């Protein structure tokens, strides 16, 4: 199983990014997938999740700004992030069943 995140980068406050998570050896459509992040000097924080039947959940800190989605045909999960602020700066990880983890993608929000 391999999960690979992409789409991170440097963005100004108020900007947007869309993260992608692709998998090999793992099918997102039948699984629960989460996004989590780790800010510098802090612990891992769960951000959002999508269940096998498409229900979505969000941490209070991102609710209304982030949207998780899944494309079964492409076997990919996405995290659209809007209204980004410096507190969103972190390495973002996707995880299948919270067991299989990617290597992370860096998101930096700074002017």
Q: Which stretches are poorly predicted, pLDDT < 50 over at least 5 residues?
A: none
Q: What is the typical, i.e. mean, pLDDT?
A: 96
Distance between the termini: 37 Å
| Biggest sheet character | 7 strands, mixed
Estimate the strand proportion.
Answer: over 45%
Q: Helix fraction? A: under 10%
| Helical run tally | 0
Q: What structural class results from the helix and strand content?
A: mainly beta
Radius of gyration (CA) equals: 13 Å
Question: Could you give the count of β-strands?
Answer: 11
Order of helices and strands: EEEEEEEEEEE
The shape, in one word, is globular
Q: Explain this structure to me?
A:
This protein has 111 residues and is mainly β. The chain is built from no helices and 11 strands. Strands 2, 4, 5, 6, 9, 10 and 11 form a 7-stranded mixed beta sheet that branches. A 4-stranded antiparallel beta sheet has the order 1-3-8-7, with no helix packed on it.
């Amino acid at each position: 199983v391999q999960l690979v995140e992409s789409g991170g980068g440097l963005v100004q406050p108020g900007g947007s990014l869309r993260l992608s998570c692709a998998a090999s050896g793992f099918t997102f459509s039948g699984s629960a997938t989460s996004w989590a992040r780790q800010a510098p000097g802090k612990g891992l924080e769960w951000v959002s999740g999508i269940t096998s039947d498409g229900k979505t959940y969000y941490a209070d800190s991102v609710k209304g700004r982030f949207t998780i989605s899944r494309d079964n045909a492409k076997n990919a999960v996405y995290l659209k992030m809007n209204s980004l602020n410096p507190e969103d700066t972190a390495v973002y990880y996707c995880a299948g069943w919270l067991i299989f983890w990617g290597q992370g993608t860096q998101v930096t929000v700074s002017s």
